Amino acid sequence: MEPQVATQQSPAHTTLGPPLETANSGFLDTLGLGSLQNLLNDGGPIVWILLLLSVFVTMVILVKFWQFQWTGINRRGRVDYAIRSWTMGYHSQSLEYLTAIDRNPLAKVIAHAMRGLLYRPGDIQLVREDVERVALEQVASARSFLRVIEAVVQIAPLLGLFGTVLGMIQAFTALQSAGAEADPAVLAGGISVALLTTAVGLAVAIPSAFALHWFESSVDRFSDTVENMLTGIFTNRLTETTPAQFDRATPHPPSSVKQEGPKLAAVKHAD
Predict the structure, then answer these.
(1) For 26, 56, 77, 153, which has the most beta carbons within 10 A of its beta carbon?
(2) How many Å is the maximal CA-CA distance in the chain?
């Protein structure tokens, strides 16, 4: 007799791992996105809209912050130095120095004023009006996209409140349909989910409001600085000059500038 070889048949269905939903849930929890998924599922389309608004306003805030840092909107150290040199009589050198600072909006406005006074000294009124035009352009550029942040600050809480109202309507409708067998716990759960949209709306609006306040205060400070410095340019800061300085026919250049050809651009000054 030939020996019989025992064969073991594999089962038709073999479990290779946890169910797909359980695996996805565990993966999201590992990334810290499980609570976010629950938030989106419970909040519905209103929370989705608020999430998109938060991403959008965050991008706008980052772009504006980069703009303010790159242009140095409130850095006035070099501009102050150029104005002091202008009042001492170094007009061409001061203008050349400011022209090299092409990114600073404050330097652009003061350079326009110096250029007008240097080349069109007889048209002071026209120079003032043109410099005012340039200043308004720079202020408008600094204020760009701030309306967008302000709109998000106002709309986000209203959207959250709208989602809460819709959730409350659904909760009370379900309670009415249940009739005498209504469970107060179910009503409480529906109300808590409805209030979720209000919390998300406030979470989007509050940080945006802080950022908007910082940007607006920076723009207001920039506007005040422009007005102050332009006044100093057109009046030549007469009240800051001592009587002894009035008697000097030709002011002496700074010690760090060569006598034969002072170049302010060669002098390094930190902002």
Answers:
(1) 153
(2) 134
DSSP type of residue 35: H
Mean pLDDT for the stretch of residues 118-125:
87
In the three-class reduction of DSSP (H, G, I as helix; E, B as strand; rest coil), residue 117 is classed as helix
Distance, in Å, from the CA atom of 263 to the CA atom of 94, rounded to the nearest integer, reads: 8
User: pTM of the full predicted structure?
Assistant: 0.69
CB 251 within 8 A of CB 89: yes
State the DSSP code for 12.
S
Please write the tens of the pLDDT for every residue from 206-248. 999 999 999 999 999 999 999 999 988 888 877 776 544 444 4
Kindly give, in sequence order, each residue whose CB lies less than 8 Å from that of residue 89, ignoring residues fewer than 6 positions away: 250, 251
DSSP 217-265: HHHHHHHHHHHHHHHHHHHTTGGGS-HHHHT-SSPPPPTTS-SSS--GG
| 26 alpha-carbon distance from chain centroid | 36
Is residue 74 within 8 A of residue 222, CB to CB? The reply is: yes
Taking only the tens place, the pLDDT of each residue in 169-188 is 877 777 777 666 666 666 66
Tell me phi and psi for residue 170, to 5 degrees.
-65, -40
Q: What is the DSSP code string of 165-198?
A: HHHHHHHHHHHHHHGGG--HHHHHHHHHHHHHHH
